[in-house]
Amino acid sequence: MAQIIDGKAIAADVRREVAAEVARLTSAHNLVPGLAVVIVGSRKDSQTYVNMKRKACAEVGIRSVHVDLPEDISEVALVEEVHRLNADPAVHGILVQLPLPKHINEEKILSEISIEKDVDGFHPLNIGKLAMKGREPLFVPCTPKGCMELLSRSGVTVKGKRAVVVGRSNIVGLPVSLLLLKADATVSIVHSRTPDPESIVGEADIVIAAAGQAMMIKGDWIKPGAAVIDVGTNSVDDPTRKSGYRLVGDVDFAEVSKVAGYLTPVPGGVGPMTVAMLLKNTVDGAKRGVVE
Ligand SMILES: NC(=O)c1ccc[n+]([C@@H]2O[C@H](COP(=O)([O-])OP(=O)(O)OC[C@H]3O[C@@H](n4cnc5c(N)ncnc54)[C@H](OP(=O)(O)O)[C@@H]3O)[C@@H](O)[C@H]2O)c1
């Protein structure tokens, strides 16, 4: 049976460490890390995520700057808002909640965020540095960073291992592949056009599943003892639940837990780590200007 990696508990450890660091920065340097969380419009799901992030900031002592903008804001006005936050010395990180309304070019907005405050790590310069040997990005995207943290805090060695990432999106698949490569794994990426994905996944010591396909990865795909990190968050109908649905990963948990060495559950695996890494990135950003 796989060892189940408790993402909630590991995220709680990270939050405690972040809170201690915030307290130290505040008392030793009179510095309160600040995170601007920008939301445009009133999508219910985005509001839920934003509230969660703001609450998490408050719990560790990070000052969260609320920027709530109307759905019909122009792209020019949103860029001006980002520039204002870029120039604000009390703001060390800027997060623009996605998706943005259709009339706004997301790529344009994300590339206007100063790379020094790009706590989501999505700026093309930060992703470019992540991809290059010998260069270090100022920030690494939170979910991929959370996957790496789950592996290292569970005692899984990455160096020299065969790793397979299922998915190649800009926010998860690609950056997690680059992180694994930087950590000296031999990396393969499986995507929707990959023939015979199961035989490639079957060679992996480490599997990162980020395809957004409910329970796609079955027990007989997995090499016995492999470490499996399930990023997928998919809602499937469940008439036995009051809500009528439940969340499942990209991995068939019941089957894979019998074969893998390590496995993250959904929910309670990668999800809690994403917010914890956002807090960590904000504090790391704030510390950059401090002379110890
Ligand atoms: N827990 C968290 O904090 C967190 C954070 C972010 C995302 N997620 C979850 O992670 C999953 C992936 O998110 P995302 O934003 O990366 O999704 P995405 O942008 O839709 O990308 C999905 C990727 O998976 C590939 N793919 C789709 N179907 C496939 C299949 N049958 N076989 C192999 N590859 C396949 C796609 O290939 P192509 O490129 O060829 O289309 C694409 O690269 C989602 O379930 C999402 O909800 C969770």
From TrEMBL:
UniProt source species: Eleusine coracana subsp. coracana
HAMAP family membership: THF_DHG_CYH
The family this protein is said to belong to: Belongs to the tetrahydrofolate dehydrogenase/cyclohydrolase family.
Any GO BP: tetrahydrofolate interconversion
Keyword Transcription regulation: no
Domain Tetrahydrofolate dehydrogenase/cyclohydrolase NAD(P)-binding positions: 141-288
Keyword tags: Hydrolase, Multifunctional enzyme, NADP, One-carbon metabolism, Oxidoreductase, Photorespiration
Record-given protein name: Methenyltetrahydrofolate cyclohydrolase
Domain spans labelled Tetrahydrofolate dehydrogenase/cyclohydrolase catalytic: 5-120
Gene (name only): gb24865
Gene Ontology annotations for the cellular component aspect, listed alphabetically: cytosol
Subunit structure: Homodimer.
One Pfam family from the record: THF_DHG_CYH_C
Catalytic activity: (6R)-5,10-methylene-5,6,7,8-tetrahydrofolate + NADP(+) = (6R)-5,10-methenyltetrahydrofolate + NADPH; (6R)-5,10-methenyltetrahydrofolate + H2O = (6R)-10-formyltetrahydrofolate + H(+)
Physiological role: Catalyzes the oxidation of 5,10-methylenetetrahydrofolate to 5,10-methenyltetrahydrofolate and then the hydrolysis of 5,10-methenyltetrahydrofolate to 10-formyltetrahydrofolate.
GO MF terms, alphabetically ordered: methenyltetrahydrofolate cyclohydrolase activity; methylenetetrahydrofolate dehydrogenase (NADP+) activity
Pathways involved: One-carbon metabolism; tetrahydrofolate interconversion
InterPro entries xref list: Aminoacid_DH-like_N_sf, NAD(P)-bd_dom_sf, THF_DH/CycHdrlase, THF_DH/CycHdrlase_cat_dom, THF_DH/CycHdrlase_CS, THF_DH/CycHdrlase_NAD-bd_dom
